[in-house]
Specification:
single chain; mainly alpha; Na+/H+ antiporter like fold
Length: 851
Amino acid sequence: MHTPVVIAAFAVLLIVISLLQPLARRLDLAPSVLLAAVGALIGALAAYLLYTPRTDALNDLAQVFVDPPIDSETILYVFLPLLLFQTTLTLEIRRIFEDIGPILVLAVVAVLVATACIGLAIYPLSGVPLVACLLLGAIVATTDPVAVVSIFRDIGAPARLGRLVEGESLLNDAAAIVLFVILFGMLTGAQAPELSTAVMTFFRSFVGGLVFGLVIGRIAVAILPVMREHKLAQVTFSVALPYLVYVLSEQVVGVSAVVAVVSSGIMFNLYGPARVTPDAWSYLHDVWEQIAFWAASLIFVIASILIPEMLDGFRLLDALILVVLILAAFVGRAVVIFGLLPLLGVMRLGEGVSNKYKTVILWGGMRGAVTLTLALSVTEHRNIPDDIQHFIAVQATGFVLFTLLVYGTTLKPLIKVLKLNKLSPLDEALRNQFQALVLSDVRDGVDQMASAYAISPTVARKVSDGYAARSAAAAEANAFSEDIMDKERVQLGLIALADRERVLVLHHFRENTVSNRTISAHLAIVGAIADLARTKGRAGYNRAARRLVAFDVSFRAAQWVFRWLKTDAFLGRVVADRFERLLLTRIVLNELILFNVKRIRPMVGDRVSTILHEVLDSRKDDVLRALEALRLQYPDYADALELEFLRRTGERMEETAYAEAYAQRLIASELYNDLQRELAVQMGETRQRPHIDLGLKTRDLIASNPLFASLPDQQRETISRLLRPLFVLPGEHIIRKGQKGDAAFFISSGAAEVRTAFGVHRMGRGDVVGEMALLTGQPRSADVVALGYCTLLVLSAADFRNLIRTSPELKAHVEHLAQTRLGMNAAEAAALAEKAAQDVPDPASEHSAQA
């Protein structure tokens, strides 16, 4: 084929794709449905032009579409890595993890069940081996989220529904293609036909791809800062990454290329924002959105052009098999969605999925370009018999057309019938009240503008009266009537506050006033606050908000790493992350309190606004307590972090002022560029987050502890080899009552509470806890709980006894502490006994009273 003709055909496809987008919206159709229809039409028209004897004028162009200069392998290598990687970039990965149970069931389990159901159902009618029927099942098990998600966005379906479908499709493709490769190898003789071998191959390929992708993705994220100031270089690097992962995993490592690309994209999405500027990350997203649009549209059109050829020789038996295939796929998917998903809720492995959601997910199982491309790869393989090629091509193509033409055209009406596109009464109330408030503000603004520009009051009144009328209509339609209780109004206010909180966090992200390290995790929690406020009201809002001050899994993992691997780098990072998250939350809560007064109060009234203020105040108190606990332990780092925040804020204000002056032509480009260069140098010096020193070096802790400060250097050096530092969190048990005494704990910093049967004692820096059980040989007689962040020095029982024996001063001090504590316990026990005796009535006096 001539290169100019191929380029012309490519240009024609791009023009068709660009014109179909507005046409699909005008016709109220999913773009994928229209792309498939037009692609098939192009294929049929090209075949007619090529083979008709009436004209030869367009033969060269028609030949490109009838026999494209691209095979299925090239289509997969060129387009699939881009589509998979871009999907991972658009997902809220941490929110996806919240629904990982349902998603894994929909993706992996549903693929296996659908493959088995389809294969076993059509095998008696097909006349081909069972492996070929199972291969067809794997091919049609891949769902296409593009059309479904676009429909969700058009009609305003719930966000969680979109996350479930996108998460399913992402892992669905991975599982289905791994299964396809195994069955394809069995059909061609490249794979052993034993079931056990196939199962082991599936898990090795899947898990191997997951691990390989995570490793490469982490390496890629570590390289990103090298290109921090170069957005174009970052985009280029990100485009190269999925291709490199795809080729290496398949050709070199021998694991699933699809799984590897997905896992590398997840790693890139999780940690990429922390390695580049907010503007650069937004730019990267925008470019990837355009790339994915081209890739998704082109792969769909190219695959659809081949539909007429793949349906060639369609018979009545093929129609019967297709009906069975459709029913088997529907039943298999329904069994998983309505049979297995509810079990996850029963076993508390994920939040329940409503029946309305399940119905939409079932009906939204459209198939697309990946299914057609996999089927095409079967028809191109020489070792597969013609009857099997025809069987798979016809059935896969027919199934894709059915899902697009039936599911694709009826999904939107189904969602409307289920009323998933409708605002709830609470949301409708919020909408109307907010609209009335905004229109009133706009009317006032129009009046002020007319006065400022000396516009005739008569003319201005025509515009402002229109806004006044609309504002009054919105107020009249407002659902804040007697049938909406204060509880529901509170829920509306919480929803508005949660949405505003997300906006504020994103604002600080874009303004670069906080470091990027913790922003994605913070946004995920804020997203959960919004979701639970909508579904669970005040209780859900508070439950999700507590996650911002709670100690998450990473904190526990960091403690474990420190205690067992003796390295505090990970622990220092998560402590710093917590410090910054609490600081950002405190700042955002202050802004939310003002937002509640200025914007929420006019919408929900004074009484409800007061309740919202109490909720925000309670959150703020929790954050301040957590922040104060950290500040007491690390005051210097708290000051450094706040100083860094103010510096970043000042730099951002300076940058904005220069940009506005240049935009208004107050300064020339030379001056603006010079100022920008100077500011870039300044920002480079303050961009890095301050380093936190946890102070966990054993020798320093021993030297600073009053118990050991007076000991000779040689003895302190001996002690340092015996002691090991321990970092504990507020509320964590250092000692539990009843345990065997196996160690003593010297408090180097922080405070702890000793809870005995006789009372509670507070211990601080320089005190020892746990020594009583070592001195007496008895089990622990009290619980010891950390009141804040504590740094302890731990000494085993044997080393404790040896140390006491060799150090008279330390022995005297420990015995003095023990005697003091025993005396306090005895005094409290006597006080309790005296109080109990006073509470027991005197029998003689009782008898006298009765007489």
